Amino acid sequence: MIKAGIIGATGYAGGELVRLLLAHPQVEIAWYGSRSFVDKKYADVYRNMFTLVDAACMDDNMEELADQADVIFTATPQGFCASLLGEGILSKAKVIDLSADFRIKDVAVYEKWYGIEHKAPKFIGEAVYGLCELNREAVKGARLVANPGCYPTCSVLSVYPLVKEGLIDPATLIIDAKSGTSGAGRGAKVDNLFCEVNENIKAYGVTTHRHTPEIEEQLSYAAGQAVALNFTPHLVPMNRGILVTAYASLRRDRGELPSYEKVREAYAKYYKDEKFVRVLNKDVCPETKWVEGSNYVDVNFRIDERTGRIIMMGAMDNLVKGAAGQAVQNMNLMFGFPESQALELVPMFP
Questions:
Q1: DSSP codes, 61-80
Q2: Residue 279, SS3?
């Protein structure tokens, strides 16, 4: 049994962490941190936790928390974790950061895209990018994990095998993504009001979205060369879910496009033993409703022989595999628990 502390427990990702960890047989939640609701009963903030959680919200004192917890989850805005993290904390507790503070290895790139000074650059090199399917062994030995963003998780897993195997030209890669409104967080914003979102779909962060360099960096590792791409997210009027549709030109071999079987073999090579990545049957397109509330990512592809391009698709729940579920998956690896423990969630329908 280990003790976990959550800073940012009253945000959407933090609330999902609570839901998942309450069902984990080897974890006790020792700290429900929330700067906005200190001393307020957690179940009064999230009434679905009535009779399930009797604790009150606490502050964001990471140093005190490190004395009480074996693992600290920081579901906080960018810059927060880096501003508090120190060797004293990491010597006592493992940290899984759900913000972007340690995802990007080039501090200059981080500061450019996020517009803030990085307060703990000395830990960037140590941090392990916690996309379990790619970095499983490194996560196991880590004391600091950078939990990937929701868009990068779905985007990278959708296209990774073809980039890694050299079946597509990464210079032609375009990623179109759509997300439910929970991806924007729980804070009150005009753009997220019901009347603004309902009956509407819109692109945002066009050419400037902060997840762009994270996606590029991970795919650059896969390609063995620098990758620059277009990433365009859209907001859709639903609570949860991400749908990625990516486009790229296939590389020809002696003038011939790769066959369906060859592309399928690439996905099987990397995902056949992955519990949480489901490669769908031929011509079945991923849909958000078939992964909602689960830690699964559904992926598939279709070759367009007329244009010589391939369309790669992925769907997942942005709060589970895109945030809290992936964080728990990382925690399981870090502490030697079964990787899928507390995550064998059947997708909800309807």
A1: -HHHHHTT-SEEEE---TTH
A2: strand
Task: Please tell me the pTM assigned to this model.
Answer: 0.96
Give yes or no: residues 201 and 121 share one domain: no
Q: How confident is the model over 3-23, as a mean pLDDT?
A: 98
Nearest Cα neighbor of 335 from 189, 166, 145 is 145
Q: Which domain holds residue 33?
A: 2-126
At 45, is the pLDDT very low, low, confident or very high (cuts 50, 70, 90)? Answer: very high
The Cα 93–Cα 30 span in angstroms is 13
Q: Distance (Å, rounded) from C-alpha 206 to C-alpha 182?
A: 19
Known catalytic residue at 132: no
Verify that 202 and 296 share a domain, yes or no.
Answer: yes
Cβ atoms of residues 151 and 242 within 8 Å? yes
CA distance 72 to 27: 12
Active-site choice (81, 132, 150, 154): 150
